[in-house]
Specification:
Layout (H helix, E strand, L loop, with lengths): L3 H23 L14 E6 L4 H14 L3 E2 L8 E6 L9 H9 L12 E8 L5 E8 L11 H13 L4
Parallel strand pairs: 1-2, 1-3
Antiparallel strand pairs: 3-4, 4-5
Length: 162
């Protein structure tokens, strides 16, 4: 009969594995913090170097009507960041060292032919939600913000009184 001491490594491994799987499940696209529900204003930050992506975002946000679009990130509750990997951002050596040591998910390289759509908390700069969408060169994908809209609507349903 196995003793508790001999089973201990297996128990620890199972607990750690279940924790890791739980973390991965919570990081799936579509999950976001409830603070998004109180956001009223949004700023579109276009890092794609192509105005068509920004125009598509404005059009979808206007049709949706969930947020008021503002002209500066300082006036926004959240920022919608559009990136296709073409953005160059000057930074100091200290900033570069810090970024190299710990790269947030929204800063990871965007695969060729895709656009990263990230919802960022304006005050803190923290990424709240992120998604990749396939694009056709300089053509924005149809329904570019449909996953964002779906995630927010799902969050609203799960937090509304029944």
């Amino acid at each position: 009969m196995k003793t508790l001491a001999s089973l201990f490594p297996a128990i620890v491994a199972a607990v750690l594995l279940s924790g890791a799987l739980s973390t991965l499940a919570n990081d799936k696209p579509g999950s976001m913090p409830t603070t998004v529900l109180s956001a009223k204003t949004i700023f579109v930050e276009n890092q794609t170097a192509d105005a068509q992506f920004q125009n598509a975002a404005y059009t979808e946000l206007t049709k949706w009507g969930r947020f008021q679009i503002v002209d500066a990130s300082q006036n926004a509750d959240v920022v919608l960041r559009l990136s296709n990997g073409n953005h160059v951002h000057p930074m100091s050596a200290e900033e570069l060292d810090a970024r190299m040591a710990s790269k947030p998910p929204e800063e990871e390289a965007v695969p060729a032919g895709f656009i990263r759509i990230t919802l960022v908390e304006a005050k803190t700069g923290n990424a709240l939600w992120s998604d990749l969408k396939k694009s056709n060169g300089s053509q924005p994908p149809r329904g570019m913000l449909e996953n964002l809209r779906s995630a927010i609507e799902q969050l609203q349903k799960s937090h509304s009184p029944k």
